[in-house]
Amino acid sequence: MMSQSNRSRRLPVYILTDRSGSMSGEPIVAVNQGLQMLKTDLEQEPRAVESVWISIISFGGTAIVDVPLTELMQFNPPTLRAEGSTPLGEALRLLNRAIDNDVVLSSGQSTGDYKPLVFLFTDGDPTDEWRTPAQEVKQRSKAKTANIIAVGCGPNINTATLKEITESVLIMENTKAGDFQRLIAWISQSVKQTSKKAGTLTPGASASGTPPPAIDLPPPPGSGFKIVL
Amino acid sequence: MSNDDQNPIPPGNEQTGSKHSRPASSVDPKEGATSPAPVVEPSLAAPSSQAVQADASTPAPLLLRQPDTGPAAALTSADTVLPSQDPGTRATGTTVVGPAFVIPPVAEPAPTEVPPVTEPTPSQPSPADEPPPVQPLPNSVVMDHSRTLWREVEPTDTADPVRHTANDVKSGRSGARLVGASRRGRSHAHDGKYREDDFALAICDDWLLAAVADGTGSKRLARVGARIASVSATRYLALVLRRSSQDMGMAAQLRGAMVGAMVFALAEVSAEAARRHTDMNDLACTLLLLAYLDHPGGKWLGVAQVGDGEITVQQQDGKCGLLGRSDHGKTAGESLFLTSSDTQLTWDSRVRTYEVVEPFRSICIGTDGVMDDFMPPFGKLEDLYHELEEVPRDQAPDLWLLEWLNYARRGSFDDRTLVMLLPGMWTRMQTK
What we know:
The structure holds two protein chains of two kinds.
Chain A: E1 11-18, H1 26-42, H2 46-51, E2 52-60, E3 62-71, H3 88-102, E4 117-122, H4 131-143, E5 147-153, H5 159-163, E6 168-172, H6 177-196, E7 225-228
Helix pairs in contact in A: 1-6, 3-4
Chain B: H1 49-56, H2 70-74, H3 139-147, E1 165-171, E2 177-183, H4 186-191, E3 197-204, E4 207-214, H5 222-241, H6 250-275, E5 287-295, E6 298-306, E7 310-315, E8 320-322, E9 351-355, E10 360-366, H7 368-371, H8 381-387, H9 397-404, E11 416-422
Antiparallel strand pairs in B: 1-2, 2-11, 3-4, 4-5, 5-6, 6-9, 7-8, 7-10, 10-11
């Protein structure tokens, strides 16, 4: 038998979701259902079962790590309640700290974890100081040490804010329940596609900072979504 | 497809399994009049066990002397490695080239400790209600579950078929052997894709030659590129190195041959792309090469590497290290490929040549599908060599290796290819 360490290469997936007061009602229900759907869907894919680790960070009043980075089989989607302001900056700080702590980097002689995949949902303007942590996140996006996709939902979204966080911004103009399901399906597909390439592509961020290839995601989930360039 | 089917070496040049015959074209060690090499016993046959015992008390000749720096000092840093640069030193008959066969260290597996997942350091802001991290499941539990999800699907694409496994073994006349095997990974099996790794072995006079290639996952004709690159590189090495001579500066000849083999492989891949009216990048692959001269007059090793995967050695004392220079770390996981435009002016830096002055146990050349499992932070090379201890003893070592490549490991589902170089008996060197 193989003597092996209990370590294996991971694809870290961070989901940052808004649960401020404006999300109450149907939107937060859709988010909770969506997270459940994401788990169910990914569990059908053996590569994801072996390599995907998920973390949930939510923000509404305060920002918290609802789920620290957890392997798919043990991931229990939280039930989020909508309340309070939109402390996006605090959530981004938590994200930066988590990536720095969690992800095993490549060294000169070996490869570490795969490049983290980050999805951010929000429906409004941040209410705290967010520019400083956003710059750090944007730096990861630019250096391609993480794949970060921001999804703005609803009519009140400020595209310029999201563009300060990452290069990849997707806008859901009107949030019908069906749209959100399609978005989750798209995220699931993106995660699967990334884990599929796992054998040959983009292991984690490197200290050297040389950009790896751009992420290869499925086309966005149809009408109602637009990619902001 | 079997590597035997497409042996790159014309039958006339091949010495598979022949330990006793010597074609007239080969260099007789005695002809190397200027060589300080120990006079070799008349017979080049593999040494008998009797010879082993007889030689055991003989003082080690010059060639087996430890490098001056000693192995411990030699194992310091990759930067201090001195692949033989001066081809003439040995031929002058004065000294043995210094630490000519030195292993750069494998990075200490400090990262094998799991970093605390969410334990905040005191200086960092952290909400008090953050849940503690869940203890990860044993890998076996996760694997038991994923096993129910993996499928094994035959490719529907009938163009350029590739067998899901390949294996080959070739013996040089000194008794040194090359053992290779390649296996389609779980991911390609699940998706109904062909294996995209390949390898080729060849024997030419006293040279043992091997090439390993990993077709780039996302490319349409990756498997074709891997096939052509590995076969053409070994063919080139065989053509060029059979004319090499120990009297003419082996390090330089070997270096030239290794560079030439990479260039030739690229040219052949490029020509195939042209024949198919497609972009050369559709055939993108990595390429790892090995040429080992197992000759009484001197043992030489050349390695070359474009892209990820590893070329590793286990010394006689059990220490393991890297011989090649993998590209994965430098570029944040973006492996380089034979066809990458930024590869092509760096050929020379991708070659390392060694005069082998100490015995070694074996050398492995593997694609990332195998080697990443045995490199920090996910494993260590010592475990790889431990696992492979049976190979030299097995009657069908290539089949043993092929079976072994089927090991299950969480998160490791790429194609796997491994070639081992098992040196002949070193005792022959001691007969002075």
